């Protein structure tokens, strides 16, 4: 079943009434959420709030028990991460999923290698020079400066590895129809300067029209890059607010449960 976008303001990714059941346990309870092209949404919550489960639903790793997922207005049913990837959604996991012995260029082109022309290409030989040239052009477009393309990933710093993982996903979603990036704790275990480099890259990707969802425990990162904050508590959405006008004490209150959900039903009169 497919539907078509009804307006030019169609969200890049829209979740409607998402539920996830594990037996009698309801990990997600009626979640509505969206992210627009060029918008950064921070998804916050304490451990066990449902953030990781919701991220896995968005990325196709988990199929929801109920609800619908729309990408640029078209309804999708994801049965595997490859389905989400085909729809324009890329996930950057906390472990980055890089092949450390291989160089930067190889990692950036993983699964999308450029083959050599002629008989060698028919036999599966890749054109490493062409891949390096295209990788450098893509990184220049994103404003990224890393080590030389021939340097193995295992020789990079933590911040450089994170940049490579982000750039690889950005390259894959940055086509004619801007895609969606899902980031799981993108600055975990990074120092101050490395974190600032990653923050700048995230904002550049958003400025290029990519929709970004970030799961993080890092409130300074959230306020540095996010346009909007969505907060989960025990599997329910308790807040959905602009970052620029939201008090940090309110955010902490929603995360811990000491502040009532902004979606609680009004008391009966």
Automatic annotation (TrEMBL):
Signal peptide: none annotated. It comes from the Bacteria. InterPro entries: AAA+_ATPase, ABC_carbohydrate_import_ATPase, ABC_transporter-like_ATP-bd, ABC_transporter-like_CS, P-loop_NTPase. Residues 13-259 form the ABC transporter domain. Keywords: ATP-binding, Nucleotide-binding. GO terms for molecular function: ATP binding; ATP hydrolysis activity. CDD domains: ABC_Carb_Monos_I. This is Sugar ABC transporter ATP-binding protein.
């Amino acid at each position: 079943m497919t539907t078509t976008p009804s307006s030019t303001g169609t969200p890049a990714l829209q979740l409607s009434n998402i539920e996830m059941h594990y037996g009698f346990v309801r990990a997600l309870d009626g979640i509505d959420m969206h992210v627009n092209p060029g918008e950064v949404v921070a998804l916050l919550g304490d451990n066990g709030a449902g953030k990781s489960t919701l991220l896995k639903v968005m990325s196709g790793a988990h199929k929801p028990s109920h609800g619908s997922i729309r990408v640029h207005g078209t309804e999708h049913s994801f049965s595997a991460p490859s389905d989400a990837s085909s729809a324009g959604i890329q996930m950057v996991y906390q472990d980055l999923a890089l092949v450390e012995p291989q160089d930067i260029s190889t990692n950036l082109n993983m699964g999308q290698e450029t083959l050599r022309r002629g008989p060698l290409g028919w036999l599966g030989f890749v054109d490493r020079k062409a891949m390096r040239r295209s990788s450098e052009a893509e990184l220049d477009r994103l404003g990224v400066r890393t080590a030389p393309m021939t340097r193995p990933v295992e020789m990079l710093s933590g911040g450089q590895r994170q940049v490579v993982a982000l750039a690889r996903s950005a390259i894959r979603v940055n086509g004619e129809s801007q895609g969606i990036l899902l980031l799981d704790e993108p600055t975990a275990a990074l120092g101050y300067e490395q974190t600032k480099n990653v923050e700048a890259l995230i904002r550049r990707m958003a400025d290029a029209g990519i929709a970004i969802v970030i799961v993080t425990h890092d409130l300074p990162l959230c306020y540095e890059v996010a346009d909007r904050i969505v907060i989960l508590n025990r599997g329910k959405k308790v807040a959905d607010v602009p970052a620029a006008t939201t008090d940090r004490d309110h955010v902490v209150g929603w995360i811990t449960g000491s502040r009532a959900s902004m979606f609680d039903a009004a008391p009966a009169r």
